[in-house]
Design a protein that fits this description.
By secondary structure, the protein is an alpha+beta fold. 34% of the residues lie in helices and 25% in strands. The strands form two sheets. It has a five-stranded antiparallel beta sheet with strand order 5-2-1-6-7, covered by helices on one side. A two-stranded antiparallel sheet has the order 3-4.
């Protein structure tokens, strides 16, 4: 009889020792999986934005920023940002738009780096951006260093890059033990050649 009670007590002690380790493992798997999933979504958003930037080129019409040239140039970057936002807010994603530090649309070098000064920066502002296809964007343009009417798809074509900086915020109690999960910086970029003529 005393042996059975002793064994029950031993099982409780073992369970009490193993439970915290088991919880740490479960929370760790949840956090890493969630961060990886959001990283994949950010990557998909930059690819879609760069694809749209490459397809729209300079807004159609004669190259240049003068009267009668590139008549749809003003709608190019909003279309790019709308494509990015559609991916970020698609069903099944857990991205928090307010944690997007910036979306950058830039002229890229042959290595994919930004050409200095040729960058358009967009930042989060709920329902504050231009209207695209009847929906108001949640991003507003902060700087315009690479106007769409100045982009060229003639040989050698310009390359457009789209980059996103995002902050992943942990959701499990593990964030209190592992500081990385309080605010983990995630970024991605995609570069595509301007390749379509409208």
């Amino acid at each position: 009889m005393q042996i059975a009670r002793h064994e029950r007590g031993q099982a409780v002690v073992e369970f009490a020792l193993v439970l915290p380790v088991l919880l740490l493992l479960v929370f760790g798997v949840v956090e890493v999986t969630q961060a990886y999933s959001e990283s994949l979504t950010i990557g998909a958003a930059t690819r879609e934005g760069a694809r749209v930037a490459g397809a729209l080129v300079n807004g159609g019409g004669t190259l240049g920023c003068g009267g009668g040239q590139s008549p749809n140039a003003a709608s190019v970057d909003p279309q790019v940002v709308a494509a990015v936002e559609r991916v970020l807010t698609a069903s099944g994603t857990s991205i928090t738009l307010s944690d997007i530090a910036e979306i950058r649309i830039y002229k890229a070098t042959s290595t994919g780096a930004e050409v200095s000064g040729a960058v358009d920066q967009w930042t989060y502002q709920w329902n504050g951006g231009p209207t695209v296809d009847g929906d108001r964007l949640d991003f507003v343009q902060q700087s315009s260093g690479w106007p769409a009417c100045g982009r060229s798809n003639v040989t050698p074509a310009d390359s457009a890059g789209v980059s996103i900086r995002y902050t992943y915020r942990g959701t499990t109690p593990l964030r209190y033990l592992v500081q990385t999960f309080i605010a983990l910086a995630i970024s991605d970029r995609t570069v595509m050649s301007l390749n379509a003529i409208r």
